[in-house]
């Protein structure tokens, strides 16, 4: 909203009530027109869908929503491709291609589009969400729900999540086994979510969670699907390292699906103790775009920006750019 407030062109802003947009708009100094009334203390998915329907009927030029893939699905189910949409990333799952790379860039993109800047052209953007049945079988599989129209500017929006090619499987297994062999005694290893880091647990003959964050000490699993407070307790008084993969297609290191690894956790371990694993195919697929960090802490994001070593196989690594 702060980015929208600085947009040069005049525009009419319609929002949902209170937490559904009104509060954020007023805090940014904007005067919104509230077009929906909450029937309970907290909003639900049904409220999101109903508000999107009203906005579509009002023929708005753009719908800006806050959330993750679930919210993207709710909005898309209500408006389809009739109204362009932009997602402000704030959820756990963000596989869809309608999200800005961070909240500020989502606002910048909305401003560009509203000023009819040709840099913010429309594209068909995938609406994706995880297949819950696959998750129950310890597989990550994103399902395509449709294509929304969404403003696009290469440096401001993320791509839909993509996986690695089959040829990279052996390289990732080799890198995971090497990291498992190198684990230091009495050092706590925080394993981020995803199939890449799950390979390390498999190399240790441990059964980790696929979408959660786990903790390993002396080659044993001492924390499963842990939250920030549990991680801080486990890390207390110990050398710690954070191991994360790269979110394919988006290049995200922190802030997409691994919010448990919070700024406090990263500062406690130290940026120098972050270990990144990725197939070379995932990095090539980024088309030269940097890896992204969006922890919610601007100072930490700036500290993490620069370059980082990414393990791509056994005794193989590349140095890759990181941006906030």
Written overview of the protein:
There is one protein chain. With 324 residues, this protein is an alpha/beta fold. It has helices at residues 2-5, 22-27, 45-57, 69-79, 103-114, 132-136, 169-182, 195-203, 228-235, 263-269, 280-285, 298-304; strands at 14-15, 33-34, 63-67, 85-89, 121-130, 142-152, 187-191, 214-217, 220-223, 239-245, 252-254, 274-277, 291-293, 306-313, 316-323. It has twelve helices and 15 strands. Strand 1 (14-15), helix 2 (22-27) and strand 2 form a beta-alpha-beta unit. The longest helix has 14 residues, at 169-182.
Please tell me how large the radius of gyration is: 21 Å
Sketch the major β-sheet: 9 strands, mixed
Number of helices: 12
DSSP helix fraction: 25-40%
Strand order of the largest sheet: 9-8-7-10-12-14-15-13-11
Give me the oligomer status: single chain
Number of strand elements: 15
Mean pLDDT: 89
Basic shape: elongated
Helix-strand string = HEHEHEHEHEHEHEHEEHEEHEHEHEE
- Can you tell me the residue ranges where pLDDT is under 50 for at least 5 consecutive residues? none
Query: What fraction of the residues are assigned to beta strands by DSSP?
Result: 25-35%
Query: Structural class per helix/strand content?
Result: alpha/beta
**How far is the N terminus from the C terminus?**
19 Å
């Amino acid at each position: 909203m702060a980015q929208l407030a600085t947009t040069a062109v005049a525009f009419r802003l319609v929002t949902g009530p209170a937490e559904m947009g009104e509060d954020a708009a007023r805090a940014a100094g904007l005067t919104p027109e509230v077009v929906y009334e909450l029937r309970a203390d907290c909003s639900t998915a049904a409220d999101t869908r109903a508000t999107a329907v009203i906005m579509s009927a009002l023929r708005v030029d753009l719908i800006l929503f806050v959330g993750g893939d679930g919210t993207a699905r709710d909005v898309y189910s209500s408006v389809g491709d009739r109204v362009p949409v932009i997602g402000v990333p704030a959820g756990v799952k963000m596989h869809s291609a309608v999200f800005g790379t961070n909240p500020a860039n989502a606002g910048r993109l909305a401003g560009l589009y509203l000023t009819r800047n040709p840099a913010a052209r429309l594209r068909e953007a995938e609406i994706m969400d995880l297949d819950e049945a696959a998750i129950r079988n310890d597989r990550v599989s994103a399902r395509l729900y449709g294509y929304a129209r969404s403003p696009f500017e290469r440096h401001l929006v993320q791509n839909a999540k993509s996986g690695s090619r089959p040829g990279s499987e052996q390289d990732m297994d080799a890198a995971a086994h090497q990291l498992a062999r190198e684990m230091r005694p009495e050092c706590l290893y925080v394993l981020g979510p995803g199939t890449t880091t799950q390979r390390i647990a498999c190399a240790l003959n441990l059964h980790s969670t696929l979408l959660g964050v786990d903790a390993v000490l002396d080659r044993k699993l001492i924390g499963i699907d842990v939250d920030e407070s549990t991680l801080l307790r486990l890390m207390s008084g110990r050398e710690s390292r954070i191991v994360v993969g790269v979110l394919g297609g988006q290049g995200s290191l922190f802030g997409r699906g691994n919010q448990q690894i919070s700024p406090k956790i990263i500062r406690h371990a130290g940026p120098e103790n972050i270990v990144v694993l990725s197939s070379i195919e995932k990095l090539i697929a980024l088309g030269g775009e940097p890896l992204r960090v969006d922890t919610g802490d601007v100072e930490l994001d700036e500290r993490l920006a620069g370059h980082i070593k990414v393990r791509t196989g056994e005794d193989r690594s590349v140095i890759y750019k990181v941006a906030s």
